[in-house]
Amino acid sequence: MDPIRFQEVWRGYRGVPVLKGLDFAVPKGSITAFVGRNGSGKTTAIKCMLGLLRTERGLLYVLGRQVSNLDIETLQRIGYLSERPMLDQRWRVCQALELSRMLNPRWDEALEASLLDRLDLDPRFPIAALSLGQTRKLGLVIALAARPELLVLDEPAGNLDVVVRREFLDAVLELFRSEGMTVLLSTHLLNEAERIADRVVFLEGGRCQLDQNLDDLKDSVKALRIAPRNGAVLAAPQIEGTLLRRQAGREWLVTVQGFRQELVARLEGELNAFVEVRDLNLEDIFIACTLHAQEATP
Q1: Is the Cβ–Cβ distance between 67 and 60 less than 8 Å?
Q2: Which helix (H) or strand (E) holds 107?
Q3: Strands (E), the chain
Q4: What pTM value is reported for the model?
Q5: Cβ neighbours, 10 Å, residue 79
Q6: Environment class of residue 244 by beta-carbon count within 10 Å: exposed (0-12), middle (13-18) or buried (19+)?
Q7: For the chain, which residues make up each domain, given as ranges?
Q8: What is the helix, strand, coil percentage profile of the chain, to 5?
Q9: What contacts 144, CB < 8 A, 6 or more positions away?
Q10: Which CATH number, 3.30.420.40, 3.40.50.300, 3.40.640.10, 3.10.20.310, labels domain 4-205?
């Protein structure tokens, strides 16, 4: 069974639905980027997954167990890092690590020492004096040194400078490669997600807009620049799978999903036009899918 499986999950606040039949899976051994605009339901989904919020309808499985029946042994196989780790400000770094060792039977002290050195964290330092980046680093050490089978990261690198973000995500990627754990990374930093993820889930309005292997997604979604021959005027091209379409002078710029190479020759013949195919990065694709979903919503 997949380490994470949402099946038509609903959850709301004060009668207002946030998750609206959310349905997707995270395959074992993947790094899945969990992306969506603010308010799309990402954090609510994660809290439901960890048992911090109850679902109203649907089924939700984590590491083979229904979330409603999670036991302590299963929870110990999950590492979780939120945007603001909850750490006692009265303690020093070493005290937080000591408590974590006691609570996690899978704790790896050698990995702890390696991560502290790599991330330049002094165990003697007071937690209250840590910067935001240092606090996140400590949270990452605690999450990773427990050697989880499933690592859940909720906006872990937000508001960090680019150097700290790179160190942070490289540490996750290195352990992922050596241990083969499963990672769910919720983030709005799509360029960072694209660098380490192999799968992507888009949320929009509490629903799964897209759930796909990242390489397959980038092969499928392309931008087409369609320019008429001989200065002719082109009507708006009707292309199956169109996400976005806009006119730029005499040209049309069209983003399509489900692209196939034979589409180019067909359009050139039908429209008497030149067609240029452009690759898109994850941010471009996300924007196109989000705007398309907005236009499709009544």
Answers
A1: yes
A2: none
A3: 4-13, 16-26, 31-36, 57-62, 65-66, 78-81, 150-154, 182-186, 199-204, 207-213, 221-228, 242-248, 251-257, 273-278
A4: 0.88
A5: 24
A6: middle
A7: 4-205, 217-296
A8: 40, 30, 30
A9: 79, 111, 115, 151, 171, 172, 175
A10: 3.40.50.300
Amino acid (1-letter code) at residue 196: I
- Architecture in CATH of 217-296: 2-Layer Sandwich (3.30)
* pLDDT by 10s per residue, the chain, length 298: 899 999 999 999 888 899 999 999 999 999 999 998 888 899 999 999 999 999 999 999 999 999 988 898 999 899 998 877 778 888 999 999 999 999 889 899 998 998 898 888 999 999 999 888 888 889 888 988 999 999 999 887 766 777 777 777 777 777 777 777 899 999 888 888 898 899 999 998 899 989 999 999 999 999 999 999 877 788 888 999 999 999 988 899 999 999 999 999 999 999 999 999 999 999 999 999 888 877 766 5
**DSSP symbols for 261-296:** THHHHHHHHHHTEEEEEE---HHHHHHHHHHHHHHH
